[in-house]
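question for whoever is on the cluster today: can someone run the full assembly for these? two chains, 692 residues total. i dont have access anymore since they changed the login thing
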Amino acid sequence: MDFYSFLIQLLNGLQYGLLLFLVASGLTLIFGIMGIINLAHGSFYMVGAYMAFSLSVLTGNLFVAIVLGIVLSVALGVVLEWVLFSHLYKRDHLEQVLLTYGLILVFEELRSLIVGNDVHGVAVPAIFNWSIPLTETLSYPVYRLFMSAVCVLLAVALYLLIAKTRLGMMIRAGSSNREMVQSLGLNINLVYRLVFALGVALAAFAGMLAAPVSSVYPGMGTGVLIICFVVVVIGGIGSVWGALVAALLIGLADTFGKVLIPEAAGVTVYLVMAAVLLWRPEGLFRRV
Amino acid sequence: MTTSRQQPPSRRARMNALAAVAAALVAMAGLTLPIDSALAQQQKVKIGLMLPYTGTYAALGNAITNAFKLAIEENGGKLGGRDVEYFVVDDESDPAKAPDNANKLIKRDQVDVLVGTVHSGVALAMAKIARDTNTLLIIPNAGADEITGPLCAANIFRTSFSNSQLGIAMGKVMAEQKKKTAVTITWKYAAGEESIGGFKESFEAGGGKVVKELYLPFPQVEFQPLLTEIAGLKPDVVYAFFAGGGAVKFVKDYAAAGLNKTIPLVGPGFLTDGTLEAQGDSAQGLLTTLHYGDGLNNPKNNAFRAAYIKAYKTEPDVYAVGGYDAAQLLIVGMNAVKGDTSKRAELVKAMAAAKIDSPRGSLALNVGHNPIHDIYLRKVEGKENKVVGVAVKNLTDPPKGCKL
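^ ran it for u. tokens below:
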């Protein structure tokens, strides 16, 4: 592969990695800070994508749809946490898996009943609907660059939230020792509810942002779920910084794997995961 | 255990009495149920539909089911004079669950005919089980070559297509258009490999060369790295096999990368069937090969489309045609044996020899029970796959490895 193609593939890998980070960030928050294994994470991604589709059809504008969608998904997160997840904190991981697996099935059926089973496309907003020519045959879609920029901004915002704000301090304290925080007089239940809502909103936002590029179809959640868990496990559970590094690593591994060793392309990602875990069983970074 | 003359019958005694009564009842039942073909005639024909009703192929499963039932309705709701009963199983397009799902219909529900499915991996499992249990199987979509090749059997039929057929047709057209080099891209699974194989065979026979075959694991949809490779290779044409959500994404990504301006994209009909709404502008002008298309003006097709729209308020597609013809094939067979499913040899003989008036045109079956039909060349214009010509007339692919 010549140098120019290598650069383009590098760009492809980084862009894919940033998208993975966006999708996985919600999972690592919920898993790391609240200790809940949320298998329904892929379903929230799908809910976001379908919301982008139906709301943009309704309002005619993807950005308006995304804003509305974020509001709706925060509301959904709050309700789900209050009704279901708040009972899970003291329970076994297996029970969390069972509940969230059940949620996957429920969401799939609801989606089938409400929106149907067809494949849908979401139009790229007009300002981003053009491509930058890179070579005489290949152009790079500007929307993907926009997505990458959003992902980077989000990574910075999340880091600042968790490391530099009072709320972030409460979240970190609550994940270390829930009872102590409660006895110090802080409303840990509200904090957990906010974190969960944030996690759901992040997943849905990822679905909404990626909808023009990935299109909207049944089963899109499950495809993304496994790779999210790989990212979270490699990055270190609860570490946003780790999720970013891991996502970029996976993005690059997957991209170059597909091109250089296509026969093993399906397992490249898992080989990377195995290698990292052998070196550092807890993942690359401790929780932030 | 305590024993006492005054106690009520012990538990063991009660169990023995119950067993004796049960045995007597079973014996009586055995004597009074005549296993008589005349009685069986009155019973309903049990059709087992094993199709995807959830997941990425759900729309296809529904289309096939709707069209199958429509054909039966048009036949008076009967098969060979007998009423029809449907048993439905969602196969979730999961090959791992296929044996269990098929056995639910064959062993638990005791269906007379098994109809399905869409995913080739699942269909292969169904074909193996149909051979083992000698169940009549009609495949309305899955195109795995093997099923009418090495796995062919007297009781297995297909009314859709074989994967390589559509590739063979496009390869011939591309060679005729004087394209010299091609790159193929698809998922690494049976359907993809067979489609590419068919294309490569006829393209290279016509003087072209496939310079690279690109694969990615099923069902991954991150195409960017491979699109970059295609741009670097600069072939005369790209032949792609994807279906469903993957097809939408690939066509959109191909256009977003600007490749469609310099390198034409072609493929079997699934690249653009049922996906044009989602693909929008990115699919305009794409050439595909399929045994069906929009604007096919024959009386049967016009009647079929009108009836389907009236019944289901939506347009039928190629998947619906496969389901419709599966029912038509079964009707031909059942009429020949007057509904007596026990006359298996005559039933399958009639089905194998059937000449069906299909919405696609004329449909007959080859030795392996795979369709012999015209393959059309279609071009995307607006929201339709307009038929612009016939790629290959009466294409019958050799049933490699079939011992029938």
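summary bc i know u wont read the tokens: The CA atoms of residues 137 and 270 of chain A lie 33 Å apart. The first strand of chain A starts at residue 131 and ends at 133.
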